[in-house]
Design brief:
Chain lengths: 398, 345
């Protein structure tokens, strides 16, 4: 491997695939110490103000959270060890996601190489600064490396043969492209393909909620939707209004509140995005999927879909909200597919949500979370128990 | 004979009923168009700026035509920067009309006779399938207005000085037509004419293709005219047009520095926040309006170009004077689903 073309953003420079004498344990104290110090740096007020997403990341990396994650890795029927070498290919545009998957893998004691896109900027730069400032045990730099390299299939190929687990983010096309590089026979892929996420809003639940609860729900929804331009895999897109009867009052109040929140946050949608949304909304109208398109403001585009079978599964822009009415959560089940990831909810009882999940039967939808939690990363993601994926088990029968 | 004759008030009075009738015609004959207008609640327009506009990119994502399949005479395509292609459907009548109107527009500055024509391009470009649709169609479309064509660039894209000299010896003492893309004219004609003392004073230059590359070299439209005047070329007409409104070009007037709308077309500059029409002097998104699209609903299109109206009925020709200022950048989202372009390539 030609190391001259590899730029080290973190970790000791050198051959990425060379054999290593370093051994880390599951929940290694040196890793715990490192991540805890990193969390402190990310949670400094100045940094968190500049990049609010670093706040959630810092929270995720707090020692108590990490120890809980380690405790969950332990089992009573097997000994738990690191999986080995892990090669991460995070998406270029979501600045923080690489830290979540890398941190869990490091916590599991793996040797990690994270490929960082050359387009990474903003919050990612702040993270590298923080990573490099942490006073860490030297083993961290030797076993945890984050690199940027250009269009070089040879490096991707070598790392693919080196790793025991390859973690591919970035959607269907990225997965297909990376899979052209063979793994070693014992290696496996953990893939994060294209996903779609929804919001469900109970009309009876909405009408029964007091104004403060409705406002709080919309604040949560607005964060979920606008934070990553509605383009993150768990950003809600279509809003399903669940219940019978005319939904106009609920929808109108929801959109009015949404505009108020967007105003208060000072979020903007530029002209190019506004045009993008028109193109997509008109496209849905042209095919008959939407019967009404409204553009009250560049920041909000509202569409009325003819049915839950007409929901777009491609991104249609930041602040674009198709609405579809469905009688009950159960009736929504047939419209859900394997591609669907997160359903964020408001106004339902726990029993209704459980019944919905059971009716789905794992055929679609991996997460059901309240409004405001759609983007909160968890150790169980896309239906995978990540700590389990990052470890291997040895059984001893005596 | 000019197609730049109508004062703004008269133009609007003449165009509005035609455009309203086109809107109704397309609604009746193009179902997707009718659905779009129904979904957005359009009923009627009392001004040109009230007419329902379609984002021009819709012709890349939808098949929009108002004629039956068996009347499709020509399908025009344009390659976009993203690889999507606009598809424009013409029947026989629309194809003939757009050619007739284009001819009338350029004859306003060229006169009725076909002139000897110097093409600032390479013949090889016609064979390059990738660039053909945009550049080739422009060159071919314009070449019908000239005769005795000579290519100023050889097959390798290098300046063919001998060919230019021969052309000028033969035709240089009477009016002749020069056509090319703005950047090529600057790079391959202006600099060569300057360095070799070529006399272009009888030339009439028609050029198009955007200013971006020139602005990168710090050459403004004004500077462009001034420098070309230095090699004798003073009759210069930039134009703006697109395949989605084929046959309609907005032409720079003899006074230079601004584009004018032919009698069958107009522009509206919109505020990209409120989408209302902006007054002269305020830049915004450019909407182009034309009565020529009769076979597809392209009579009112919002472009992705920024523009500004400088004045109304106050220039060399009547109507709106405007400039194209540049392109709206394409919307890009952050997001998980973002492909590894390097790996995919």
């Amino acid at each position: 491997m030609n190391s001259a073309t590899v730029q080290f953003r973190f970790g000791a420079e050198g051959d990425l695939t060379a054999p290593s004498e370093d051994r880390l344990a599951v929940g290694d104290e040196r890793v715990l110490d490192f991540l805890a110090k990193l969390a402190r740096k990310l949670l400094t007020p100045a940094l968190a103000r500049r990049h609010p997403e670093l706040g959630s990341l810092g929270f995720f990396l707090r020692p108590a959270e990490l120890r809980r994650a380690v405790a969950k890795m332990e089992r009573d029927d097997a000994l738990v060890f690191p999986r080995g070498n892990v090669f991460h290919l995070p998406p270029a545009n979501v600045d923080t996601i690489f830290v979540y998957s890398w941190a869990l893998s490091a916590l599991a004691g793996n040797h990690n190489v994270v490929r960082i896109s050359s387009r990474a900027a903003g919050a990612a730069e702040a993270i590298f600064e923080a990573l490099n400032e942490v006073d860490a045990d030297p083993v961290i730099a030797r076993t945890q490396r984050m690199v940027t390299y250009g269009r070089d299939d040879a490096i991707t190929g070598a790392l693919s043969r080196w790793c025991d687990l390859r973690v591919i983010w970035g959607g269907d096309a990225a997965v297909d492209a990376i899979r052209k590089h063979p793994l070693r026979p014992s290696g496996r892929d953990l893939t994060f393909p294209d996903r779609t996420s929804w919001a469900v809003l109970s009309m009876p639940g909405w009408r029964a909620a007091d104004p403060a609860a409705r406002k709080a729900a919309v604040v949560g929804f607005a964060n979920d939707a606008y934070w990553f331009d509605q383009a993150a895999c768990s950003s809600p897109r279509t809003v399903f209004l669940i219940g019978d009867g005319d939904p106009a009052d609920v929808r109108t109040e929801f959109l009015d509140l949404l505009l108020t929140v967007v105003d208060q946050r000072g979020w903007t949608v530029d002209a190019a995005m506004a045009v993008e949304k028109r193109v997509n909304a008109y496209g849905l109208a042209a095919t008959g999927a939407a019967t009404a398109v409204e553009f009250p403001d560049n920041r909000i585009t509202a569409l009325t879909l003819t049915g839950s079978d007409q929901v777009p599964r491609h991104w249609i822009g930041a602040g674009a909200f198709p609405f579809a009415q469905v009688g009950s959560l159960t009736e929504l089940v047939p419209a859900m597919t394997r591609q669907d990831q997160t359903v964020s909810h408001f106004g339902f009882t726990p029993a209704e949500l459980r019944a919905f999940a059971i009716a789905l039967g794992g055929r679609g939808v991996d997460r059901i979370v309240p409004f405001g939690s759609a983007l909160t990363f968890g150790a169980v993601w896309d239906g995978y128990d990540l700590p389990a994926e990052f470890t291997r088990l040895t059984t001893v029968t005596t | 004979m000019s197609v730049f004759t109508l004062a703004q008030k008269d133009k609007e009075a003449a165009l509005l009923p035609q455009l309203a009738a086109l809107t109704e015609f397309h609604r009746a004959h193009c179902e997707p168009y009718d659905r779009i207008l129904s979904a957005s609640g359009f009923t009627a327009a009392s001004e040109i700026s009230d007419l329902p506009w379609l984002p021009v990119r819709l012709f890349k994502t939808l098949e929009l035509k108002s004629i039956p399949d068996d009347e499709v005479f020509k399908i025009l395509t344009s390659s976009g920067t993203t690889g999507d292609v606009s598809k424009i459907y013409l029947d026989k009548a629309a194809a003939a009309e757009q050619q007739r109107r284009l001819a009338a527009t350029v004859q306003t500055v060229l006169g009725p006779k076909r002139l000897p024509m110097l093409l600032v391009d390479t013949k090889a470009m016609l064979k390059d399938r990738r660039s053909f649709s945009a550049r080739g169609a422009g060159v071919l479309g314009m070449s019908t207005f000239g005769r005795d064509h000579v290519w100023a660039l050889d097959l390798d894209g290098q300046v063919d000085l001998q060919a230019i000299r021969d052309f000028l010896t033969k035709h240089g003492d009477a009016p002749f037509l020069i056509f090319g893309f703005t950047f090529l004219v600057w790079l391959h004609l202006y600099e060569v004419a300057r360095d070799h003392g070529l006399d272009l004073s009888n030339g009439i230059l028609i050029h198009s293709g955007g200013w971006k590359k020139l602005v990168d070299q710090a050459v403004s439209p004004d500077e462009f005219r001034k420098r070309l005047a230095g090699v004798g070329l003073t009759r210069i007409h930039n134009y703006y047009g697109m395949v989605e409104q084929i046959g309609t070009i907005f032409l720079e007037g003899p006074d230079g520095g601004a584009l004018y709308c032919p009698d069958f077309a107009d522009v509206v500059v919109r505020d990209p926040e409120t989408w209302a029409e902006l007054p002269p002097g305020k830049p915004g998104l450019l909407e182009v309006v034309s009565t020529l699209p009769t076979s597809y609903p392209g009579h009112v299109l919002l472009t992705e170009d920024l523009g500004v109206v400088h004045g109304i009925d106050d220039g060399a020709w009547p109507g709106k004077r405007f400039s194209v200022l540049g392109r709206l950048p394409r919307a890009e989202a952050r997001g998980c689903s973002d492909t590894y372009k390097e790996a995919a390539a």
